[in-house]
Structures are given as structure tokens and as C-alpha cells.
Amino acid sequence: MNKYYDYHSHSYFSGDIPAGRGSSVREMCLSAIEKGVAELAVTDHCDIDGIIDGYFKPLDHEAVLAEILAAREEFRGRLKLLHGIELGQGIHKPKEASELLEKYGYDVVLGSVHAVRGIIDFADTDLISLSKNERITLWERYLAEMLEMLEWGKFDILTHITYPKRYFLKQGITDFPDIAGRGKEYFEPIIKKVIEKGFTLECNTSGLRQIMGECLPNRELFGFYYELGGRDISFGADSHNARDIAAGFDTAAEMLKSLGFKYISVFDGRQKSRIPF
Ligand SMILES: [Zn+2]
Ligand SMILES: [Zn+2]
């Protein structure tokens, strides 16, 4: 790729980054410019249910925005910097989520499912102690809530589908619901809804840096998306540190090009356009 468009990145304001770790928006911009990134969206975590219910520390929206505005000035002409947000489980607190989106406007909104009703995050869930049937039920609830979130629709990019797979694998669970064999069956309604409603499907490259060793979703599901008529994709490294910005994008681009994808979605004030990659 000549230029990178990283639409999923986290600054040190994200609630899952411990104090003293992570990167400032300025550090992220410097790294992005060095790597040849044309557009960077800062999309700090806002798992709105967890924040409102007190499980996660609140996101300091004003502080993130202040850093973004300052960096936008400093790097004008060298990097397009977008004010985004990774909105987790908007459907769990739809009123508060809508108010937040209205208040800040945003350039781009990522729609994520990190949890389903009754759990905080797959990352913090003890999956080992669940029976196989309970794990399958949890997985199916994940898919059902994703579909519900697509119906709700107050976001632009559907992020990292297959997210729980990472945590099943991390906990050494090998009898995970068989995505390879049943991926199409599981994901067909979701993919059809993404296409019907004009969402963009994210290629999240964080899996390339982790135990999964593949993008979220993987080649098989992107192939299925293409087969069903899906064309709108975005790249997101899901970096929690400046050094990971745009990581794995060449590998991901090669995979997506080989499947026939030609364009990526870019956003400005939540208006989507397509550019070749
Ligand atoms: Zn996420
Ligand atoms: Zn993220």
C-alpha cells in the first residue's frame, strides 16, 4: 500500500490502558506520519454500559478532543486526523449513546460488541469454567446482539467481528464454536445486514499480532462478504500504542486485494466516501 488509512487507534485516554502506558495523540501522529499514514482516526474506547454502570473508568472526552485539536493544528498538511470513537454496546444504553454522539458529532463512529448483557467483556470473562453448551450460547448471544446493534445503527464501521474468538483461544479453548466450518451460517444474517444498511466492515489487524494469527474477521469471512456483495471495508490496527499504528496493513491489503476488494471507506463528519487502496 502506498498510503495507509488507520481508522482504529487508541490513545492513553482509553480506559483499558493502565496509567503511565499508551501514547498521547501527538505521539500517535508522529508515528503515523513516519509510517506513511494519510489518515488516522483516534477512536478511544467508550463501552458505554460499563462506564455508566461503573465497571470502567469514564473516558475524558474533552481531554481527548483537546489533544486531537492541538495535533490537527500541529500536523496540518501532513496528516488528516479524525476525531472518532469506539462505541461499545450502544444498544445497552441507547439514550446515553445517542446523546453522546449528538454532543460530539465525530468524524467516524466504530460500533463494537465487547460484551453481551450479563457479562462485562469477553476479555474478562472466565470462559474455561463454562460448559461447552454455555460457551455456544454465549457465542450465539454475541451474534444476536451484533445483529441488534446493526438494526439500531448509530455507527459507521462494524469492528472486529469474531472478537470473542481471541479470548476463547487465549484461554486455551479448542472446542470453540467452529467458525471455520460454520462461519457462513453464523455470519450470513450479519453480513447481509451490513450490506443492506450501508455499513463498512472493518479489517482489524490486531489479530495478526496475537494468538489468532489472522485478521478479524479472517479471509474466509471477507470472501463471504465479497460474495454476498459487500464492498465497503476499512483498516484498523486497533493500536493501544503509537508503534502499532498501521501494523499488519500490507498483509491485510494483500489478502483483501486477492479477494477482489478495491476500495476502502474513508469518513469526514461521518460522511463516507470510497478511495482505491
Ligand atoms: Zn474493540
Ligand atoms: Zn479498539
Bound molecules: zinc ion
Q: Please identify the top-level CATH class.
A: Alpha Beta
Termini distance? 7 Å
- CATH homologous superfamily title: Metal-dependent hydrolases
Structural class: alpha/beta
H/E element sequence? EHEHHEHEHEHHEHEHEE
List the uncertain runs. none
- Tally of discrete structural domains: 1
Largest sheet: 7 strands, parallel
Helical stretch tally: 9
- CATH topology name, in short, is TIM Barrel
| Spatial strand order of the main sheet | 1-2-3-4-5-6-7
Note the overall shape.
globular
Mean of the pLDDT scores? 95
Radius of gyration: 18 Å
Q: Give the helix level as a range of percent.
A: 25-40%
CATH architecture classification = Alpha-Beta Barrel
Find the count of extended strands (DSSP E, 2+ residues).
Answer: 9
Strand composition percent:
15-25%
What's the helix and strand layout?
Layout: E1 4-9, H1 25-35, E2 37-47, H2 48-52, H3 61-74, E3 80-88, H4 94-104, E4 108-112, H5 132-152, E5 157-158, H6 163-170, H7 179-196, E6 200-204, H8 219-227, E7 233-236, H9 249-259, E8 263-268, E9 271-276
Parallel strand pairs: 1-2, 2-3, 3-4, 4-5, 5-6, 6-7
Antiparallel strand pairs: 8-9
Helix pairs in contact: 5-7, 7-8
The protein binds zinc ion (2 copies).
One zinc ion (ZN) binds at residues 8, 10, 86, 238.
Summarize the model shown.
The protein has helices at 25-35, 48-52, 61-74, 94-104, 132-152, 163-170, 179-196, 219-227, 249-259, and strands spanning 4-9, 37-47, 80-88, 108-112, 157-158, 200-204, 233-236, 263-268, 271-276. By secondary structure, the chain is α/β, with parallel strands linked by helices.
